[in-house]
User: Fold this.
Amino acid sequence: MTEADFRDVYSQQGRYDELLLPHVFGNASDVDLAAEVMRRCYGDPSTPGLDVCDLGCGTGRVTAALAPYAASLCGVDSSQAMIVAFTERFPDSRTVLADLPDAVTGFEPASFDVIGAFWSLSYPIMAYFESLDTDGITPHLDRSRAVAAARRLIDRIVRLLKPGGHLLIEFFDSDSPEQRVVSRLWERLAPHPGGDRSFSRQILLDALTRAERDGRGTLQVRHFDGIALAPDADAARGWFLHVHAKSHPLILNDRRTEPDVATFIAANQCRDGSVHLPAGVYLIEFTAGEDTDA
Ligand SMILES: C[S@@+](CC[C@H](N)C(=O)[O-])C[C@H]1O[C@@H](n2cnc3c(N)ncnc32)[C@H](O)[C@@H]1O
Assistant:
C-alpha cells in the first residue's frame, strides 16, 4: 500500500464513478431527491436564472439536478480529479479547487440562490476535530475551539445565500446498518469525537438551528431509509474498502476488516448475487429569510 492509494477514490480520475453504488430511497435516487426539492421550490427549469453553487461537487453527479436552473454554476472541490470531471460535465461552469472553508471565505455574502452540498459536508466539519493521514487519526485537543470553528463554517455557508435562497444538503445516516459497519472500521483507528459518527450531523444541525433561531431562515430535516445497490459482492466490498474506508492502509491491513465486511455483505446478498445494503440519508433544507442580515 503506497501513500498515493489512500483517498484514491477522490484523487484518481474515474475511480469514484467506478466504485460508486447507486442509492435508492423508495423510488428515488439521491439525485432524484435533490431534483424534487428544486421542482418544489422553483417549478420546472424552463428559464434558468439562478446562481447555483455545489460545495464538494465531485464529478457533478448530483449537481445535474441543480444545473438546469442555473444561470451561473459554480463547483467547489478540494480534489483536482473531481474538478476536471466537473468541468467536463459542465464546460460553462466556474470551479474552485480549494478546501471548502477557504472557498467559502472567498465568496461574497449573498452570492447564491441555491447552494448544494451532497455527501460532502462531514469531511470539512470533522477536519476541525481530527486530522487523518496514512498513519491514522490525530484528535485535535481543543474541542470547544473546533466546535466554534465548525459552527462558523456553517454560518458562513448560510450567509452565502441570497434572500429567499436555498441550502440543500444530503448527509449520511450514521445509524443505518451500512454505516454502523463503517463506524466499526474507523473506530479501530481512534474513538469518534463526540462519541459516535452522528456528531458531524449534530454539529451541522445545531448551527442551522441557531441560524433559524436568529431569524435567518427556516430549517427542514427529513430522513429517508433506502439501499445501496451493488451488482455483486465484489462491488459491495470495493464500496466499503475503497469508498467508505478510502483505502486507508490501517483499515485494509487490519485482519478484522475483511471478515466484518464479508459477513455484512453475505447477510444482505440476494439470490441473484446482487447486494442490497441498508442505507439512509438526511435531506436537510435551509431556506434563507428575506432579510438575511437578521
Ligand atoms: C462523497 S463525495 C460526494 C461528491 C458529490 N457531491 C456526489 O454526491 O457525488 C465527497 C466530495 O467532497 C470532496 N471533499 C471532501 N473534503 C473536502 C474539503 N475539505 N473541501 C472541499 N471538498 C471536499 C471530495 O473531494 C469529494 O468530491
